[in-house]
């Protein structure tokens, strides 16, 4: 949402009143927290540039291509002076995550992707706040511009969450709070000069559970992630072949990975998430053999409105094939299901099916 205009100075009282209204609107719309910060990201720049220089972004070329935009909020909204950061919980009522991970007949889907695509929900609600903010500002004779974002443009979301007090950056590199990490972030860039909130204090202490439980050791040091090793990257972002050495470590995870969050002590205090993210299609505990049987049209129709749909049917079959290759030898139906995909037109799918079948044949 963009509305042209300048943002003259607000009186201290008017700015404070608008800030209170923003929190009230956010609570009404289901956000767990709303914070305000400035736009200076200089403190985060060295970490981002080092991560890119080390190649830890893998094949996510857009991370390097748009790095300059992440470090220049004014390029996304000319005249921006304030960032409003928001946190929306998503932890769904679902089958026990650890139990699913422990059952190699079932598919594990990252909890954030079990329901509706978060981009749509988060942005829709933030647009409501932005519209109300512009209306309230106009009544004060303060026209402003706003731009709503939620993982939809090059933004240092975790950094703005930290600066605005919405959450600190955990050692797993995700946004973390005393209510855990099962939440989405979103932002409103605005040209209004609003008072900033105190930054979030870190409360990870000496804990390193997220590092110790990572299946592929992708968290190479506290606050440092090598995406090339991360199961979320391998199953979602990587377009081609999954490195054979990493396939056995993926287990039954077919879309994303939550291990670092499932073992984080702060997530004991997580509250139930928004109803928009309730489980669809039984994906919290679906049999792998059933998911491999989905046709492309079935994949598209079942996952309409889901974040999963963007990886496409080919990668879906690739991921499920790897998970079936990791199933216990002799698990009923696994070999039959894999053989049904041996003639798939995609070389990528066939490669992973052959690998999976070889795993089972070697165990005979």
UniProtKB/TrEMBL annotation:
Binds 2 [4Fe-4S] clusters per monomer. Its main location: cytoplasm. Its EC number is 1.17.99.6. It comes from the Bacteria. The keyword Iron applies. It is an enzyme of class 1 (oxidoreductase). [4Fe-4S] cluster 2 binds at residues 214, 230, 257, 260. Belongs to the QueG family. The gene is queG. It comes from Candidatus Accumulibacter adjunctus. Coiled coil: none annotated. Residues 192-224 form the 4Fe-4S ferredoxin-type domain. The keyword tRNA processing applies. GO terms for molecular function: 4 iron, 4 sulfur cluster binding; cobalamin binding; epoxyqueuosine reductase activity; metal ion binding. Pfam families: Fer4_16, QueG_DUF1730. This is Epoxyqueuosine reductase. Catalyzes the conversion of epoxyqueuosine (oQ) to queuosine (Q), which is a hypermodified base found in the wobble positions of tRNA(Asp), tRNA(Asn), tRNA(His) and tRNA(Tyr). PANTHER family: EPOXYQUEUOSINE REDUCTASE (PTHR30002). Monomer. Pathway: tRNA modification; tRNA-queuosine biosynthesis. Its cofactor is cob(II)alamin; [4Fe-4S] cluster.
């Amino acid at each position: 949402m963009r509305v042209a205009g300048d943002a003259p100075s607000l009186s201290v009282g008017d700015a404070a009143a608008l800030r209170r209204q923003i929190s009230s609107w956010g609570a009404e719309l289901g956000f767990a927290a709303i914070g305000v910060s400035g736009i200076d990201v200089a403190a985060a720049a060295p970490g981002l540039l080092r991560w890119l220089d080390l190649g830890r972004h893998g094949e996510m070329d857009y991370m390097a291509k748009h790095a300059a935009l992440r470090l220049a909020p004014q390029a996304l909204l000319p005249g921006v002076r304030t960032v409003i950061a928001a946190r929306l919980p998503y932890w769904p009522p679902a089958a026990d995550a650890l139990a699913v991970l422990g059952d190699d007949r079932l598919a594990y889907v990252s909890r954030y992707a079990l329901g509706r695509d978060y981009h749509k929900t988060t942005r829709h609600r933030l647009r409501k706040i932005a519209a109300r903010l512009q209306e309230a500002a106009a009544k004060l004779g303060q026209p402003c511009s706003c731009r709503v974002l939620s993982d939809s443009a090059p933004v240092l979301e975790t950094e703005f969450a930290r600066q605005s007090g919405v959450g600190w950056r955990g050692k797993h590199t995700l946004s973390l709070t005393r209510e855990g990490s099962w939440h989405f972030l979103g932002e409103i860039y605005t040209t209004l000069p609003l008072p900033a909130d105190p930054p979030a204090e870190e409360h990870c202490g000496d804990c390193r559970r997220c590092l110790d439980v990572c299946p592929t050791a992708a968290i190479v040091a506290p606050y440092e992630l090598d995406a090339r090793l991360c199961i979320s990257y391998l199953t979602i972002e990587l377009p081609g072949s999954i490195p054979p050495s990493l396939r056995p470590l993926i287990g039954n995870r077919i879309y994303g990975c939550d291990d670092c969050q499932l073992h984080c002590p702060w997530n004991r205090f997580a509250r139930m998430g928004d109803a928009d993210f309730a489980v669809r299609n039984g994906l919290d505990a679906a049999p792998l053999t059933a998911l491999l049987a989905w046709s492309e049209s079935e994949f598209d129709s079942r996952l309409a409105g889901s974040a999963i749909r963007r990886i496409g049917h080919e990668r879906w079959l690739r991921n499920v094939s790897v998970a079936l290759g990791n199933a216990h030898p002799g698990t009923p139906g696994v070999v039959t299901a894999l053989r049904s995909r041996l003639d798939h037109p995609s070389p990528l799918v066939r490669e992973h099916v052959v690998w999976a079948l070889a795993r089972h044949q070697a165990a005979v």
